[in-house]
Amino acid sequence: MNVPFIIRYPGKLKPRVSDLMLSTPDIMPTLLSMAGLKTEIPSAVQGNDLAAHLSGKASKVKAPKGVLYIRNNDGDVNEKDEVLNYFPVSRGIKTDRYTLAITIDRNKKVKEILLFDDKKDPYQMHPLDANRHISLMKRLTGQMKELLKQANDPWYRENILGMGE
């Protein structure tokens, strides 16, 4: 689940590889801030302005320790085969070391759990047995729950797999 994000900004950013974890909602406020439009960032934006982290400056915003993975499938369709909603089939978290992805079926029961140690298995070829890593699972699902809450995600709102209040 490592997806590169490339920014070229001559005179502002030095070419380098960063280990900063950036989520899709963080892109817009970060780019607006880098472009000198910090005051134009809407207050309702869910993402964080991480421009200071990219430029190496001090920041009041903490660098994320994990980012969400979200996968939705089409939900109900009408008689014209138009999709009316979506089904939140999978959620996960990527940290600096681990990746966890949980997939559910239409009855909102666990269908699959994928857990990887990205340091030992960077290509995610050998999933760890989640049942043998209970404390790690608790830590990762706790982090994931907090991120789902911040995003007001359906898994949080509907308390899917205990991810809500």
TrEMBL record:
The UniProt entry's coiled-coil ranges are none
Q: Which Pfam families does the record cross-reference, listed alphabetically?
A: SGSH_C
Q: Which residues form the N-sulphoglucosamine sulphohydrolase C-terminal domain?
A: 1-149
InterPro entries (alphabetical): Alkaline_phosphatase_core_sf, GAG_Ulvan_Degrading_Sulfatases, SGSH_C
Q: What name appears for this protein in its UniProt entry?
A: N-sulphoglucosamine sulphohydrolase C-terminal domain-containing protein
